[in-house]
């Protein structure tokens, strides 16, 4: 007969395995895990010009590196959303290790295609072309209300970017904002 500790250990192992399996399936079928290179993180955050009153979002945050760098730079409210439970666990662990007392850094397991963007001022994403295209209308509405979108490597098709900045890794950061509101 199994005792409570054994059942707890087995349940934890099953949940971790299920989370790993979900992450593998998401990476294989939906959005491959791509990580913003470490060497350009601070360069990208500097180009974003984040300020204390900004509310920053990383869509598809993975382990949350750019969110943590954004917070380190500006001490603003920073959010990271990812569909993978394993990535969120890793991001939360990193947050606890780097900023254990901060309540201004939030990582949540969310479907980025269903997010309401109205509470954010600046959004960063490193998503593939299909995902960027699927988010185009949402981004257009966000930009027209004064928000700014930063996209590493992939542009939003048929949408003019305000700037296209070549980074030190020879990739581009596309910056989208409403030029008429400046």
TrEMBL record:
Q: Name one Pfam family in it.
A: Methyltransf_31
Q: Which UniProt keywords apply?
A: Membrane, Methyltransferase, S-adenosyl-L-methionine, Transferase, Transmembrane, Transmembrane helix
Name its GO BP terms in alphabetical order.
Answer: methylation
Q: Where is the Methyltransferase domain?
A: 51-163
- Keyword Transcription regulation assigned to the entry: answer is no
**InterPro entries, A to Z:** FAM173A/B, Methyltranfer_dom, SAM-dependent_MTases_sf
- Classification via SUPFAM superfamilies: S-adenosyl-L-methionine-dependent methyltransferases
Name any one GO molecular function.
protein-lysine N-methyltransferase activity
Kindly list the residue ranges recorded as spanning the membrane.
6-30
Q: What is this protein called?
A: Methyltransferase domain-containing protein
Give the organism's phylogenetic lineage. Bacteria, Candidatus Dojkabacteria
């Amino acid at each position: 007969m199994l005792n409570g500790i054994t059942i707890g250990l087995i349940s934890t192992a099953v949940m971790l395995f299920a989370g790993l399996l979900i992450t593998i399936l998401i990476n294989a079928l939906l959005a491959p895990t791509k990580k913003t290179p470490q060497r350009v993180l601070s360069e990208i955050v500097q180009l974003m010009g984040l300020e204390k009153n900004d509310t920053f979002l990383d869509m598809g945050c993975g382990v949350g590196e750019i969110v943590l760098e954004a917070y380190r730079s500006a001490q603003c409210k920073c959010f990271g959303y990812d569909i993978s439970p394993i990535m969120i666990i890793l991001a939360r662990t990193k947050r606890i290790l780097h900023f254990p007392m901060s309540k201004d850094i939030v990582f949540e397991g969310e479907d980025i295609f269903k997010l309401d963007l109205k509470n954010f001022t600046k959004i960063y994403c490193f998503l593939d072309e299909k995902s960027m295209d699927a988010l185009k209308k949402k981004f257009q509405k966000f930009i027209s209300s004064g928000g700014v979108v930063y996209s590493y490597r992939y542009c939003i098709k048929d949408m003019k970017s305000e700037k296209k900045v070549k980074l030190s890794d020879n990739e581009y950061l596309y910056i989208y904002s409403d030029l008429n509101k400046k």
